[in-house]
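Holo prediction. Input below; ligand is pyridoxal-5'-phosphate.
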Amino acid sequence: MSKTRLSERIGRLDYPIRKYNALARSLEEKGEKVIYLNIGDPLKYDFTPPSELVEEACRALREGHHYYSPSEGLKELREAIAFKEKSWNGVQVDPKNVLVTNGVSEGINALYAALVNEGDEVLIPDPSYPLYINFADFYNAKKVFYRTLEEEGWRPDPDDIRRKITDKTRFIVINNPHNPTGAVYPEKTVKEILDIAAEHGLPVVSDEIYDALVFEGSFKSTAAVASEDNVVIGMNGFSKTFLVTGWRLGYIYLRGPEEKIADLRAALLGFLMTRLSAVTPLQVALARFAVKAPKHLEDLKRRLDERRRYTVRRLNEIPGVSLATSPAGAFYAFPRIDVDMDDEEFTKRLLLEEKVFVVYGSGFGPLGARHVRLVFLPPVQQLEEAFVRMERFMRRVAGS
Ligand SMILES: Cc1ncc(COP(=O)(O)O)c(C=O)c1O
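Structure of the complex:
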């Protein structure tokens, strides 16, 4: 019997963060206690969404918002997003230039679908959040990594960006605060990248999903630093800062001269029409909640910061593990691992032998090699157990 033929493009997808999930589950089925430090989902630990937001969701369901909404998102939510961007980030955006997506994940898919042809190039950070790599592969675009500087808090190197622009480049991606390194970019660096982009007439895609989770330094939104002439495609969402990862809601906003963004808006909307709409009742809830002061953030940041400080201290105590700089934002640490095996092998063995699940750094780009990414989301007690196991593993492999 012949097998169903699959597309070539599907074979090019490889999502490192979930790749070893089945292995972790099989260990659990054998009664092992796996500590999951792989997925950036605060809801898997002891974080919960603001209760007022949950109430708004129940109310929206009771009120009967069960219909499809417009493909660009409910007007009320787009207005609330414009308000949120202004009050959180000082970004002025017209609600008509906001598109609601099923998470930033879908926004990234829409971006590539609308902007790249086969063989086009996209400039992405090395290391990078994997979806920016995955969708380049999926659409047969060429991913061109630009360097970030580990010793300087993983800040992007604008000169490397400049060097790598060709006439095939379609956009420059920045992700600030950054996944997987926790970098928060200096305003000067953001401005330098914007100036290079303007010189070459390229849009800057700025993924700011961790905008409110900054512990050191100061975050400046790309659109707030951009000049009149820049086109900024802002990517943001509710998963992390509103603690609703499972609601699958995010947004894209466009900022720049109308004549430069009109086609872009139409193209993105064209893609979003094919999935009809994002989930309506939860849009209603967020529209009502996002215009209020985000009171839950203070507690969220305080708890995360305690876990971050503990993680940085403990990681640096483990022989062979080092952080050149502390993560300044988001909820990831990206330590260097000095062992005699590659990072994917390291990750697999750490999971099999000590039941600690982290992500191999090379899954995020070439500069991620010899690193791993872990989340500092669990309570300190659980982190402590993970680091005891990791230390035992490091001592064992260093001695072998
Ligand atoms: C940088 C970055 N962008 C986008 C996403 C996707 O987020 P969502 O689809 O939940 O909005 C994530 C999730 O971890 C992320 O870290």
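The pocket of pyridoxal-5'-phosphate is lined by residues 40, 103-105, 129, 175, 179, 207, 209, 237, 239, 245, 250 (CB under 6 Å). That is the main takeaway for now.
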